[in-house]
């Protein structure tokens, strides 16, 4: 019988009551007394010199309080980058200045030229139209390879070129990798693009800056996945405000998907302007603005080669990737194509030799940074595509080729610097094969063909490194931050608990799943536990939520703090029952003395902690509140096998997903329903990338797909009912819950299955096609079929 | 959105009068106009809602058997109430999503004449008569290119009269993002011949594919037009498909419409 409480139960998400009934408290719902509104005048030209800005007419418009330009930010810090990559030659990456408002030049369509603060939003917009900007258009740099050509126009005049870094990994392995390719019995080569995406969280970004003249304190309300990180970055690097004078609040946040990790100029602007004007200043992004101001994702162009010996064992992998950084370095941009990508190139396979080269390139486009999966989808896509192509070239079964090369012994140290703690890749593949009814595929294909349709089946595996990350390791790799997590567990006098976590929930359901862990540990009902997050004023310094880290790192911190609570409560219980600490047992919310019938309830102990009339005051303090900081010893390594079945209409090129099955190994699972939902959402985004989504720039740097009229988001009718299975569970060995992250797996694991299936379908129709770039839109498929 | 005045008259005469103001604009369901205004790409001085004009709502059958639809009738009402003309009801049922169909009107769509909208194909393939406050306009004369019609400034489309064909079908191939027609083809078979109208494909807006009409008027079967497609010159090329792809789709969708109508 399924549990109805604690770890492994699937209670309905308690936060959904307010989300679904319109009673959430999102940043835009916050109205600060006397707030003014800011509208940003954004460049509609991708690359231009600012020869002058005339504010005379605009400043005289009704309601205008002040118009800011880059000149107002001289002496103020720029938007910092949180990760420094060192290149193949030991040199640091090129790191351009990133001003809050453009200074001298605009570098992408959407770059902020000026900020109009007015009494109303409409007045601010009216005044922005009256600003006269003298822009001298410069050639736009859009294509990455052209950006690196000799004589290319530079996005940043003070850098030596548009190359941010040329990264080799592992550089000293390159000669051995090259030699393995010389000796290979077979080499499969594939060139592909990982399409640029716009994250499109349901809630656009919002920032409100507030300043209290009496105390000198600043407050920023913002749509962030990590308020403490924003406080540190903005306070220390941009505005020079110490943490104790700056509060950052990220209340209910309507989806992040990575793009709300980063510190954005609008946040710094609102905080700065609130102090300068002694008025709260509010900015709410429009959806149109989001397309040209939220950091984009992906955008890699890759050549991957796979070497095999005569027995079809993988002997080496070599990749060459150009990664688009956009016009400036967003907060974690440099880490995505390097440490979150190169380290995953072993995949699920015991390939002994791997070399990854990544050239990160500046272009006149929106900055690119982490988007659900961040580097790992790019790694998985190219690896699983080239393995599939190799199977076809060699005439072997794609599943058999994968199984033959699976890693089977753990822990396993890859040649790309990470050590997988646990996994069972045959186990997830077995589960997948059971779900996907592979033996029935030929009959389904024949039925499709009888209707004039092509049918294809595609499979892939994935491994990912999440639950980021050991601070000492990422420090060596260039991170300018630690990646621990924190929790304070406060037990109230009558026994209820409040957990103040450094993790942040923006759709993940922490308010439901985190209490399940404590309920399990203490043996109480989860309704006795409340989760507080998102406010630097009442949570310990934490690093926030991204990289599928919340339960693995934030949950572990909560476990450690709860263990301290239990240890102290046992001392109190021992005192109350006049027994030895070591004899106290906690079960079902009751403390008992081993071997006796003596017991005290959880609530008696917590009350004693706050009403310490009969209390061991000489040994322990009153109260029951503990904090823990947890720094993980390793990443967690969820893995899985996914299968997609498609139908392709040969007359129109339209691809329909007929079935999608996913077998994942997430180790131990706290709330199976929430994990199912995470997998569903991730697959939906992966199908979106594979079939529909594409941020497309023209040669002048104009974003062609800048609204939902041209940027295709997946809708319910675009995706099938998913088959999901998490029965294969190899618990993580290094965190106390044995959990692995599940938030990004679906988005990482699904795109190659879709493309493998489409290629399979087209080949069954007699088309000699080995690859189609994402998204496989009808017109692109039709073009592929019709040369 | 810029400020504007708003009027909601209850008679056509009052609406015509209200539209006499400089830069006044008629408002149907607002499914195109209001988003355009929100983006500050349109700035009418006054919006004149046609929604309060009772005689512009509803569906009836004329003395000549034509299906007459008031200009302010919503897509949802046409989808539910045009059972006498199943091809047209099907077209209306496939426009946008339920929210769009609950607000958008046939008159608004035909007055806007978006090159990817569905109704222009239905009206042109039906040889419909577009009735205004001032005159009657044949569909063949009404559509004059992208976002361009025979309507004069301030002229209101009050009713559309559709001769009901013996057989009809509308096939829409959706643009993946907007779900407007990447290409849409309406085929209508009348006693005196077949009419085929194409939306979404041409830079000139909705058009009749006369080559297919000639063949289908002889033999109304998909096989009769096997392999046929219009030329790709003048077809829209964009992110979602080349002109050649759209021209190809016109052939495919016409065959599918004929098969579905047969």
UniProtKB/TrEMBL annotation, chain A:
Protein source organism: Shimia sagamensis
Residues of the Aldehyde oxidase/xanthine dehydrogenase a/b hammerhead domain: 21-139
PANTHER family linked: ALDEHYDE OXIDASE 1-RELATED (PTHR11908:SF132), XANTHINE DEHYDROGENASE (PTHR11908)
Keywords: Molybdenum, Oxidoreductase
Source taxon at top rank: Bacteria
Gene3D superfamilies on file: Aldehyde oxidase/xanthine dehydrogenase, a/b hammerhead, Aldehyde oxidase/xanthine dehydrogenase, molybdopterin binding domain
Record's protein name: Xanthine dehydrogenase, molybdenum binding subunit apoprotein
Cited SUPFAM superfamilies: CO dehydrogenase molybdoprotein N-domain-like, Molybdenum cofactor-binding domain
Automatic annotation (TrEMBL), chain B:
Source superkingdom: Bacteria
Xref: SUPFAM superfamilies: CO dehydrogenase flavoprotein C-terminal domain-like, FAD-binding/transporter-associated domain-like
A Pfam short name: FAD_binding_5
InterPro entries assigned to the protein according to its UniProt record, in alphabetical order: CO_DH_flav_C (IPR005107), CO_DH_flav_C_dom_sf (IPR036683), Diverse_Substr_Oxidored (IPR051312), FAD-bd_PCMH (IPR016166), FAD-bd_PCMH-like_sf (IPR036318), FAD-bd_PCMH_sub1 (IPR016167), FAD-bd_PCMH_sub2 (IPR016169), Mopterin_DH_FAD-bd (IPR002346)
Domain called FAD-binding PCMH-type: residue spans: 1-167
Keywords: FAD, Flavoprotein, Oxidoreductase
Protein name: Carbon-monoxide dehydrogenase medium subunit
């Amino acid at each position: 019988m399924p549990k109805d409480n604690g770890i492994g139960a699937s209670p309905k998400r308690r936060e959904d009551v307010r989300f679904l009934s319109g009673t959430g408290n999102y940043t835009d719902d916050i109205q600060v007394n006397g707030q003014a509104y800011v509208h940003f005048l954004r460049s509609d030209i991708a690359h231009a010199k600012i020869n002058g800005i005339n504010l005379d007419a605009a400043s005289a418009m009704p309601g205008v309080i002040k118009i800011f330009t880059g000149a107002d930010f001289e002496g103020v810090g720029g938007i910092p980058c949180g990760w420094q990559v060192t290149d193949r030659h030991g040199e640091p990456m090129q790191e351009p200045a990133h001003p809050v408002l453009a200074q001298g030049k605009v570098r992408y369509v959407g770059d902020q030229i000026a900020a109009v603060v007015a009494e109303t939003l409409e007045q601010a917009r009216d005044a922005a139209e009256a600003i006269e900007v003298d822009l001298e258009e410069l050639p736009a740099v859009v294509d990455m390879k052209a950006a690196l050509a000799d004589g290319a126009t530079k996005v940043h005049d003070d850098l030596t070129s548009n190359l941010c870094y040329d990264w080799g990994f592992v550089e000293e392995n390159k000669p051995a990798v090259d030699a393995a390719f010389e000796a290979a019995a077979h080499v499969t080569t594939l060139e592909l693009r990982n399409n640029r995406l716009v994250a499109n969280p349901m809630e656009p970004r919002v920032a409100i800056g507030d300043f209290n003249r009496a105390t000198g304190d600043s407050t920023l309300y913002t749509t962030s996945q990590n308020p403490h990180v924003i406080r540190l970055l903005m306070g220390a690097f941009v505005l020079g405000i110490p943490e104790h004078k700056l509060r950052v609040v990220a209340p209910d946040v309507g989806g992040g998907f990575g793009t709300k990790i980063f510190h954005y100029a609008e946040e710094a602007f609102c905080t700065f302007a609130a102090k300068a004007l002694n008025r709260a200043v509010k900015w709410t992004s429009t959806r149109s603005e989001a397309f040209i101001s939220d950091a984009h994702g992906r955008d890699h162009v890759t050549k991957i080669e796979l070497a095999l010996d005569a027995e079809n064992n993988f002997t080496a992998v070599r990749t060459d990737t150009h990664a688009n950084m956009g016009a400036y370095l967003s907060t974690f941009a440099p880490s995505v194509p390097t440490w979150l990508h190169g380290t995953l190139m072993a995949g699920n396979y015991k390939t002994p030799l791997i070399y990854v080269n990544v050239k990160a390139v500046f272009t006149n486009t929106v900055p690119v940074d982490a988007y659900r999966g961040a580097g790992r989808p790019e790694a998985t896509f190219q690896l699983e595509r080239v393995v599939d192509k190799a199977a076809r070239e060699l005439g072997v079964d794609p599943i058999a080729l994968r199984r033959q090369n699976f890693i089977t012994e753990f822990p396993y140290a890859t040649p790309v610097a990470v050590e997988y703690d646990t996994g069972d890749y045959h186990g997830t593949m077995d589960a997948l094969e059971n779900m996907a009814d592979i033996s029935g595929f030929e009959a389904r294909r024949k039925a499709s063909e009888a209707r004039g349709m092509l049918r294809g089946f595609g499979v892939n595996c994935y491994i990912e490194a999440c639950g980021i990350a050991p601070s000492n390791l990422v420090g060596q790799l260039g991170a300018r931050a630690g990646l621990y997590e924190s929790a304070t567990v406060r037990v109230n006098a009558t026994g209820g608990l409040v957990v103040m976590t450094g993790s942040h929930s923006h759709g993940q359901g922490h308010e439901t799943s985190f209490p399940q862990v404590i309920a399990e540990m203490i043996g109480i009902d989860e309704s006795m536990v409340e989760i507080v997050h998102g406010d630097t004023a009442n949570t310990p310094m934490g690093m926030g939520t991204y990289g599928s880290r919340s339960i693995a790192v934030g949950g572990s911190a909560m476990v450690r703090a709860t263990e301290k609570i239990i240890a102290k409560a046992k001392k109190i219980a021992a005192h109350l029952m006049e027994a030895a600490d070591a004899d106290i047992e906690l079960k079902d919310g009751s403390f008992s003395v081993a071997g006796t019938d003596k017991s005290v309830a959880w609530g008696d102990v917590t009350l004693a902690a706050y009403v310490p009339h009969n209390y061991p005051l000489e040994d322990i303090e009153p109260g029951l509140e503990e904090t823990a900081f947890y720094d993980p010893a390793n990443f967690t390594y969820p893995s899985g096998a996914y299968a997609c079945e498609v139908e392709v209409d040969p007359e129109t090129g339209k691809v329909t997903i007929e079935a999608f099955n996913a077998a994942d190994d997430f180790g131990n699972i706290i709330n199976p329903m929430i994990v199912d939902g995470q997998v569903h959402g991730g697959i939906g985004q992966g199908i979106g990338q594979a079939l529909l989504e594409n941020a497309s720039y023209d040669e002048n740097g104009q974003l062609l797909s800048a609204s939902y009229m041209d940027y295709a988001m997946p809708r319910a009718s675009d995706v099938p009912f998913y088959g999901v299975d998490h029965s294969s569970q190899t618990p993580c060995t290094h965190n106390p819950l044995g959990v692995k992250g599940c938030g990004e797996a679906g988005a990482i694991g699904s795109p190659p299955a879709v493309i493998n299936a489409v290629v399979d379908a087209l080949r069954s129709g007699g088309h000699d096609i080995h690859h189609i770039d994402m998204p496989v839109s009808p017109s692109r498929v039709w073009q592929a079929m019709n040369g | 959105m810029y400020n504007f005045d708003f009027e909601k008259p209850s008679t056509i005469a009052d609406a015509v009068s209200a539209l006499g103001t400089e830069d006044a604009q008629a408002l149907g369901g607002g499914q195109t106009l209001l988003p355009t205004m929100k983006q500050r790409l349109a700035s009418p001085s006054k919006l004149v809602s046609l929604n309060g004009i009772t005689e512009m709502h509803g569906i009836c059958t004329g003395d000549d058997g034509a299906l007459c639809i008031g200009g302010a009738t919503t897509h949802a009402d046409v989808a539910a109430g045009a059972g006498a003309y199943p091809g047209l009801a099907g077209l209306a049922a496939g426009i946008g999503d339920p929210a769009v169909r609950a607000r958008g009107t046939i008159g608004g769509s035909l007055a806007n004449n978006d090159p990817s909208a569905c109704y222009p194909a239905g009206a042109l393939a039906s040889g419909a008569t577009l009735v205004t406050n001032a005159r009657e306009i044949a569909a063949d004369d009404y559509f004059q290119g992208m976002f361009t019609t025979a309507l004069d400034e301030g002229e209101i489309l009050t009713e559309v009269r559709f001769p009901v064909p013996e057989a009809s079908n509308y096939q829409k191939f959706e643009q993946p993002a907007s779900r407007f027609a990447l290409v849409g083809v309406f085929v209508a078979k009348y006693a005196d011949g077949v009419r085929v109208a194409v939306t979404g494909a041409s830079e000139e807006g909705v058009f009749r594919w006369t080559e297919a009409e000639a063949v289908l008027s002889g033999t109304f079967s998909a096989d009769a037009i096997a392999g046929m497609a219009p030329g790709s010159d003048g077809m829209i090329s964009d992110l979602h498909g080349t002109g050649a792809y759209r021209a190809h789709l016109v052939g495919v969708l016409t065959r599918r419409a004929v098969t579905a109508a047969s």
